[in-house]
Specification:
With 293 residues, this protein is an alpha+beta fold. The protein is 28% helix and 28% strand. The protein contains 8 helices and 16 strands. The protein has helices at residues 24-28, 46-59, 68-81, 124-129, 156-167, 211-222, 234-238, 270-282, and strands at 4-7, 10-13, 31-39, 42-44, 87-94, 111-117, 131-135, 172-176, 182-185, 189-194, 197-200, 227-229, 242-247, 251-258, 261-262, 287-289. The strands form 2 sheets. Strands 7, 8, 9, 10, 11, 12, 13, 14 and 15 form a 9-stranded mixed beta sheet that branches. Strands 2-1-6-5-3-4-16 form a 7-stranded antiparallel beta sheet. The structure holds 3-[O-phosphonopyridoxyl]--amino-benzoic acid (PXG).
């Protein structure tokens, strides 16, 4: 059965899921998106993702032609149409069809696209052994230029960093800001563990406030693990007892080497493993339920 894609109110076969070359999402990266996961017929943290999507859209003055409830319904319909119990969901809102000028006033209606597909994960082995990552020359967009809090269709900043990581033979990259402080990775937030305490860079360092990051902070606090937002340099990263990344696609993934330095014991840490367990347990709880035939 062909994959069913939602475009502007219709569920169509993948082959027929097309948008105009005049769509400003394509011409200018003018739009916003979300990456969401469904676990065993539960869309994890769907409301948090929807809220963030509407906030991104509000900031770029993009009016989503559906209410939040209607959009939630459309996500569920897309999952049901594909009989997916587990899925990776990509919600994309573009400025819509305009002319070749960048003026968004020429785009009368935003396009709404929902793609649900099988999740592609990092190989299981990387969760057991941990990732090797590097810091890259590309700096994170400063908030005062393009706020990373807007999850926009302009991901070149992140893609540049990804290219630099891949060129060096690793999967992920740490991006610093212009002051040399650690921000985040290309599509994941970063956490260090030091002396039993969990630290992650604060939002004002110029990061996307990840939904998974928020979940991990809440899980840590519930487990009485001290957790705080703290600015950090590479020095704190190199000298961490444990290090891990968080994101919707990657969930929690341990990191064991940064720029050639071994982190902690060189193996995923005990606190990291504990949080991975707690996170997996939480994916059956916090979200919007649905059923498939
Ligand atoms: N930082 C950035 C810059 C992101 O794009 C995260 C952190 C983690 O946020 P959540 O809410 O997912 O915990 C993201 C999320 C990918 C991919 O292929 C990841 C994201 C977006 C697009 C693709 O891994 N991002």
């Amino acid at each position: 059965m062909a994959l069913k894609i939602y475009i502007n109110g219709k569920l169509v076969d993948k082959e027929d899921a097309k948008i105009s070359v005049f769509d400003h999402g394509l011409l200018y990266g003018d739009g916003v998106f979300e990456g969401i996961r469904a676990y065993n017929c539960l869309v994890f943290k769907l409301e948090a993702h929807i809220d963030r999507l509407y906030e991104s859209a509000h900031t770029i003055m993009l009016s989503i032609p559906l209410t939040k409830q209607e959009l939630i319904k459309a996500v569920i319909s897309t999952l049901k149409a594909n009989s997916f119990k587990d899925a990776y969901i990509r919600l994309v809102i573009t400025r819509g069809v305009g002319d070749l000028g960048m003026d968004p006033r020429k785009c009368p209606k935003a396009s709404v696209i929902i793609i649900a597909d099988k999740i592609k994960l990092y190989p299981e082995q990387l969760y057991r052994d941990g990732l090797k990552i590097i810091t890259v020359p590309t700096l994170r967009n400063p908030s005062e230029t393009l706020n990373p809090q807007i999850k926009s269709l302009n991901y070149l900043n992140n893609i540049m960093a990804k290219i630099e990581a891949v060129n060096s033979g690793v999967e992920e990259a740490i991006l610093l800001n212009s002051m040399g402080f650690v921000t985040e990775c290309t599509g994941d937030n970063i956490f260090v563990v030091k002396n039993g305490e969990l630290c992650t860079p604060p939002q004002y360092m110029g990061i996307l406030r990840g939904v998974t990051r928020d979940s991990v902070l809440a899980l840590a606090r519930a487990a009485k693990i001290p957790a705080r937002e703290q600015i950090m340099t590479r020095h704190e990263v190199f000298n961490a007892d444990e290090l891990f990344l968080t994101g919707t696609a990657a969930e929690i993934i341990p990191v064991v080497r940064v720029d050639g330095r071994v982190i902690g014991t060189g193996k995923p840490g005990t606190l990291t493993l504990k949080l991975m367990k707690a996170f997996h347990a939480s994916t059956s709880k916090d979200g919007v339920k649905y059923s498939v035939r």
